[in-house]
Specification:
The complex is a heterodimer.
Chain A: H1 2-72, H2 74-81, H3 85-99, E1 103-108, E2 113-116, H4 130-139, E3 143-149, E4 152-162, E5 166-175, H5 178-188, E6 191-193, H6 197-204, E7 209-216, E8 224-231, H7 232-283, H8 298-325, H9 335-352, E9 355-363, H10 366-373, H11 375-392, E10 398-403, E11 406-413, H12 416-427, E12 434-436, E13 439-441, E14 445-452, H13 459-476, E15 480-482, H14 488-506, E16 510-519, E17 524-536, E18 540-542, H15 544-554, H16 557-577, E19 583-588, H17 598-608, E20 616-621, H18 622-627, H19 629-641, E21 645-651, H20 658-663, E22 668-671, H21 673-676, H22 684-699, E23 703-707, H23 712-721, E24 725-727, E25 735-736, H24 737-746
Chain B: E1 19-25, E2 37-42, E3 53-55, E4 57-59, E5 62-64, E6 67-71, E7 74-77, E8 86-90, E9 97-102, E10 110-112, E11 116-122, E12 129-135, E13 140-142, E14 148-154, E15 157-164, E16 175-179, E17 184-189
Parallel strand pairs in B: 1-17, 3-7, 6-12
Antiparallel strand pairs in B: 1-14, 2-13, 2-15, 4-5, 7-10, 8-9, 8-11, 11-12, 15-16
The chains are: A alpha/beta, B mainly beta.
Chain lengths: ~750, ~200
């Protein structure tokens, strides 16, 4: 449609221009023709007049010559000289016949006609044109002139008869007759006539003719007018022919131009169509088939530009596609691509059998590494981890970075055992320390494995379950964990709790409970351990071991620790004010030991509460102390130097060496409740451990505390073994502050102060 | 049109046996006219006819001389000095004749026995013309380049002095003079004649 209109526009424009041009040419040719016609006709008439005069002159000359020949004839002269009139007359008649005129005269030197060929009509009379005679006398030879003779225009010639001086004159008259005029007409294509005076005006007014009246010069004063006329129709003929030729030629040119324009328009619109189709192909995403245009002109260049654009778009689209499916930092496939690959592999496995395995992996304590050593370092570490993962995996596996410190590996294996082996091999990627710049760092990762079809039927579920397995691995500190059926519910709860926890802290949904520690010798309460509870709207009151790991994972543990410290110290100060001189124990997370600000914060709280630092004991688990000994030791020493008491919690579960334990600046040792809960006289293992621990602690100068005391029997054993303090449901469960205050009053253990 | 102012100049001449007449011919503007024939015709008598011979030669397609004055009765020979032929003729009433196509000198001279002017022509060569002026007196002469001529040895007596030259329009009235023996008089024609 557009192509046709382009052609039509080009055509109509061209035709309009040509028609205008033709019309202009015709008009100008017509006008020029008219002008030329007028000029030509005028010129023809002037030429005609000259031709007429020349013909008359020539005729006069010829007549004079022939008459002179006669006059020179010796016998004729002899006859004239001897006045032999009869002879003379006969010679004149003879001459008249010869030159076809009837008016030949002999004139004597006195101007009198002495004989004539007009039957003596003029004989004896003066020659009627004395002026002519004078011309001849003056010149001594012939003369000629136009005159009116016998009522008709005549050319009269006078020649002398010599003896050798003129002795007489011969005159001869020749009528200007139709033959003469026809001579002019033949030479000039004019209409030549000798009209009567009244007819002349009428003829001159004829609009079909251009007229030029020509007055002949006469020697007798008479008026002789020759009318020259040119037929305008005749004169116009060649111009009309020319105009017709121009019209014909213009039409031919117009036709040729239209033909050429159609061809040209096609030559433009065809390639344009090809270009449009090519652009359409590019628009549809076809970057393979190029536009082929043979022309070397602007359209050809445009086609080249289109093809360049096509390949550039293709390259850019590839790049965008790569960016959209790959991680910018490590260059590994991203979550989207990974998910696609897993989906594909599952689809393949559905047909061929076999398992698709997935390892979810995240870097332990990556946040702290990032915070401590900077994001740039973190990025470099992630790149290096990616590199090592790719190195340890097989070519058919897909290593992806899902975001943050999360990586994933997809693989195909024939069995669960092989999957576990593979995961362990991947775990070796973290065996060697990472050396980046001048920093060498040990990094651990938690790996969760899930398998299709053993654990999930689709990619989505598979990823979720691998994720759950990874959390298991992290929680259990085992490094690698395989998904176990039924963990989903738990896992989901954990995830939502993690999100809710921070809100809970801000909304003050946490509550502090206190459990008394009883001095075994005095059997009275001396310490209370602050234990945090989460009054969850849905799940009810939650214990720390349910949400503290979440807080640790989500980075909120610092908030909780500080909240607990603030509340516990405030409560302790309040009781102190009431005369209850208790020492409060607060649990620290292993992560808290990385917070160098913590000692200063605690000192601030104590001085604010006007509580001596000795009234606060911080409990740290054995494993927490073992993780990063040097840094933890520094914090612990700082706390110790401030006079704050330190206790090792859950002692007996970790693998701390005694040498290591010796270096710790702690005051108390809390035997893990797993050894105390079933402590009876018959449980020899537990008994032995408790007794050894108490002895060990005492040997190292530490206060030994047993928790999980729930029976009279265990209480009795501990008392017998010389344990310093006991804590457990046998004395009191953890209670809110208000309830504990009642307990102080009502319980037999309560009269501490 | 020229006005006529005849001027006559008389001068004394030394006494001699014969008289002398000096004639001077000019046109009205005083320009001398040469080859004009002046002649004095005695009044009351006719001198005897001459028995003389004159020559009218034809050389280089010209008559020589152009003007030949002779006394009546003089024979004139017409030798042809050219190596081409000539056909000499005269239609003049004083002596019409013709000598058809000849070379050399014709045997018989032509005798001009009547006074008058004979105009000579050649029938072959139209441009050739000459004049033979036949006068009834032995006293004639042609003017020289200064327009002067002298009639010598004129007998004392009464004469009419005439003038003629070619192309003269009007023949002037002759001057009548009386000359005594040994007298010398002068006659002048300054007007009364004209050239075309």
């Amino acid at each position: 449609m557009a192509v046709r209109s382009f052609q039509a526009r080009l055509l109509s424009l061209l035709i309009a221009v040509l028609v205008l041009l033709d019309a202009g040419t015709l008009v100008s040719v017509y006008l020029a023709g008219q002008r030329t016609l007028r000029r030509t006709v005028a010129e023809e008439l002037r030429v005609g007049a000259r031709v007429l005069n020349r013909i008359l002159d020539t005729r006069a000359h010829q007549l004079a010559e022939s008459t002179a020949v006669t006059a020179l004839d010796f016998p004729f002269r002899d006859a004239v000289a001897s006045a032999d009139m009869a002879t003379v007359t006969s010679v004149l008649q003879n001459h008249g016949r010869r030159v076809k005129t009837d008016a030949v005269l002999l004139i004597n030197l006195n101007g009198i006609v002495t004989t004539d060929t007009l039957n003596g009509r003029l004989t004896g009379k003066p020659f009627p044109f004395p002026a002519l005679l004078h011309d001849a006398e003056d010149r001594g030879e012939g003369a000629a002139g136009t005159v009116s003779f016998l009522g008709r225009p005549y050319q009269f010639v006078i020649v002398p008869v010599r003896g050798p001086q003129p002795i007489a004159w011969v005159g001869a008259g020749f009528e200007i007759d139709d033959a003469v005029l026809q001579d002019v007409e033949r030479l000039t294509s004019l209409d030549v006539s000798l009209p009567r005076p009244n007819a002349a005006q009428l003829m001159m007014n004829d609009p079909d003719y251009a007229s030029l009246p020509q007055h002949l010069q006469t020697r007798d004063g008479s008026r002789v007018e020759v009318l020259l006329r040119r037929s305008l129709a005749e004169a116009r003929k060649p111009f009309v022919t020319l105009q017709l030729q121009i019209v014909a030629l213009s039409s031919l040119i117009l036709l040729a131009a239209v033909f050429a324009a159609v061809i040209f328009a096609r030559s433009v619109s065809r390639p344009l169509q090809v270009l449009a189709e090519g652009a359409g192909r590019i628009g549809r995403g076809d970057y393979v088939e190029p536009i082929v245009i043979e022309q070397q002109d602007e359209i050809g260049q445009l086609a080249v530009a289109f093809n360049q654009m096509q390949s550039a778009i293709a390259a850019r689209e590839d790049q965008i596609k790569h960016q959209s499916t790959h991680d910018a930092l490590t260059g590994l496939p991203n979550r989207t691509l990974f998910f696609d690959r897993v989906t594909q592999s599952i689809a393949v496995s559905k047909r061929t059998g076999g398992s698709v395995g997935m390892i979810m992996m995240d870097v332990d304590r990556f946040k702290e590494i990032n915070d401590t050593l900077g994001h740039h370092f973190g990025d470099q570490l992630l790149i290096e981890i990616g590199r090592r993962l790719e190195h340890t995996s097989r070519a058919s596996d897909t290593v992806a970075r899902l975001g943050g410190d999360e990586f994933a590996i997809k693989f195909t294996v024939p069995s669960v055992e092989r999957a576990m082996e593979l995961a362990e091999r991947v775990g070796t990627a973290f065996d060697a320390p990472f050396v980046l710049g001048d920093v060498a760092i040990d990094v651990d990762a938690s790996l969760g494995i899930a398998l299709y079809p053993a654990h999930a039927d689709d990619a989505d579920t598979l990823m979720k379950r691998a994720d759950i397995a990874m959390y298991e691995a992290k929680k259990s500190l085992s490094g690698v964990a395989m998904y176990e059926a039924g963990r989903d519910e738990h896992s989901l709860r954990r995830l939502s709790l993690m999100m809710e926890l921070k809100q809970a802290i801000l909304r003050d949904e946490l509550e502090l409970h206190f459990q008394p520690k009883i001095d075994v010798r005095s059997e009275h309460v001396v310490h209370v351990e602050a234990l945090v509870r989460w009054k969850h709207a849905v799940h009810g009151i939650m214990r720390p071991d349910e949400f503290i790991p979440l807080a640790e994972q989500s980075g909120n543990i610092g908030l909780i620790t500080k909240w607990v410290l603030r509340k516990a110290i405030a409560q302790c100060a309040a009781w102190n004010g009431m005369g209850l001189h208790l020492t409060v124990a607060v649990n620290l997370s292993a992560l808290d030991l990385f917070d160098s600000e913590l000692p200063t914060f605690i000192s601030g709280l104590l001085s604010e509460a006007r509580l001596p630092p000795t009234r606060l004991v911080l409990e740290i688990t054995e494993s927490a102390v073992m993780e990063d000994t040097a840094y933890a030791l520094k914090i612990l020493s700082d706390l110790k130097s401030r006079g704050i008491g330190l206790a090792i919690d859950d002692f007996g579960t970790g693998y701390s060496s005694l040498g290591h334990l010796k270096r710790l600046p702690v005051d108390e040792l809390k035997i893990d409740k797993s050894f105390v809960l079933n402590l009876t006289e018959s449980s020899t293992d537990d008994l032995m451990i408790v007794r050894s621990t108490i002895e060990l602690g005492h040997n190292m100068g530490l206060v030994v505390i047993a928790e999980g005391v729930e029976t009279q029997e265990s209480w009795g054993i501990l008392k017998r073994l010389g344990c310093d303090m006991a804590q457990g449901y046998f004395m009191s469960p953890p209670l809110p502050a208000a309830k504990l205050q009642e307990w102080f009053v009502t319980s037999k253990w309560g009269s501490a102060a | 049109m020229r006005s006529l102012f005849p001027i006559l100049v008389f001068s004394l001449v030394l006494p001699a046996a014969a008289a002398t007449i000096d004639v001077r011919v000019t046109d009205a503007r005083g320009v001398p006219i040469r080859d004009a024939v002046v002649y004095a015709v005695p009044e009351g008598r006719t001198p005897p006819a001459a028995r003389k011979t004159a020559i009218m030669d034809q050389k280089n397609r010209m008559f020589i001389p152009h003007v030949l004055p002779i006394q009546t009765g003089t024979s004139v020979r017409f030798p042809n000095s050219d190596d081409i032929r000539h056909h000499v003729y005269s239609f003049s009433p004083a002596k019409p004749f013709q000598l058809p196509l000849y070379k050399g000198t014709p045997a018989n001279p032509i005798v001009f026995d009547r006074a008058g002017v004979v105009t000579l022509g050649c029938n072959i060569h139209d441009q050739m013309s000459a004049y033979i002026v036949i006068v009834d007196t032995p006293f004639f002469e042609k003017t020289g380049p200064a327009g002067s001529a002298t009639l010598k040895d004129v007998d004392a007596g009464r004469y009419s002095v005439h003038l003629w030259y070619p192309d003269m329009r009007d023949e002037p009235v002759p001057e009548t003079v009386n000359v005594a023996a040994g007298e010398r008089i002068a006659v002048s024609f300054g007007s009364g004649h004209g050239r075309p």
